[in-house]
Amino acid sequence: MKQKKIGTTLYVFDTTAYQITEDTDAAVIKIQLECIPAFELLNESLKDKFEPINYKLYCVQHPEWADYYDDLEIIIAPTTNGTVTVSPASADMGEEVTITTTPDAGYKLDTLTVMCGDVEVQVTDNKFTMPVESVVVTATFEVLPYEEQYFTLEATKDGGSLTIKTEYIDGGGDVYVSEDKGQTWNLLDGDTTYSNIQTGNTYSVKYVGNKFVYDYGSSSPFDINEAEFKVYGNAMSLIYGDEFIGKTSFPKNSNGNLSYLFYGVQGLTDASNLILPATTLTNDCYRSMFETCVRLNAAPELPATTLANSCYYSMFNGCTSLTTAPELPATTLTDSCYLEMFQSCSSLNYIKCLATDKHGTNCCSRWVSGVAATGTFVKAASMTWGTGTAGIPSGWTVEDYTPSV
Question: Which of 62, 101, 142, 162 has the highest Cβ tally under 10 A?
Answer without folding.
Answer: 162
